[in-house]
Amino acid sequence: MELVALLEYPTPEVADRCGLGFEELESRYIRLFINDLGGVAAPPYAGCFLKKQDRLEFMSAFSGFCLEHGIAIDPVQPPDYIPMMMEVLVMHLSADAQREDLLSLIADYYRDWPQGFTAALREHDDIGIYVAVAEEFCQILQEIDAQHATDPVRSH
Amino acid sequence: MSITRRKFLKGSAAGLGCLGMSSVAGLRYVSKSHAEELAAQKVKYVASSCAICTNKCVFRGQVVNGVIKRLEPQPEFAKGRGMMCARGNAGAWTPYDPNRVKYPMIRTGKRGEGKWKKATWDEAYAYIAEKTNKVVEEEGGHRSCIGFASSEGTYHEHYWNQFRTVFGSPNSLRHATLCLSSVIRGFMAVVGTYPSVDIKNSKYIILAGADRAEAFITPDTIDMFSDRSKKIICLDPRFTRTAAKATKWYPIKPGTDMAFALAMINVIIGEGLHDKAYVDKHAYGFDQLAQHVKQYTPEWAEKETDIPAQDIREIAREFAKTPNAVYYPGRRSSWQGNDVETRRAVAMVNVLVGSFDREGGLIPSVAIPTGKYFYEPAWYTNSRPRLEEDDVTFLNPRDGSWVAWRERALKSDPYAIRGLYIYKQNVVASLPNRNKTMELFDKMDIIVCVDTFMSDTAWHADVVLPETNYLERLDPPNGYGVNGIEPTLTIRQPLIKPMYDTRSGFEIVIGLAKYFEDEDGFTLDEYFEGDVESHTKDAVAEYPGALEMMKEKGFFTDGRTAPVGDYLSGKKIFNTPTKKLELYSDDFKGRGFDPMPTYKKPADIGANKFRFVVGRHAIHTQSMTANFPELNWHMPENTVWINSAKAKQMGIKSGDMVRLKNRDGAEVQINAQVTEGIRPDCVYYANGYGSLSKGQPLVYGKGASQAQILEAHFEPISGNALMHETIVEIRKV
Amino acid sequence: MANNKLWTIVFDADKCIDCKACDVACKRENGINANGNQDVRRNWINATGVVGTYPNLKKSFQPEQCHQCGNPPCVPVCPVDATWAKDDGVVVIDKDVCIGCTLCVLECPYEARYMTENNTADKCDFCAHRVAEGKEPACVDTCPTRVRVFGDLNDPNSAVAKLLKANPNAKVLHPERGTKPNLHYIS
Question: Does residue B453 belong to any structural domain of this protein?
Answer without folding.
Answer: yes
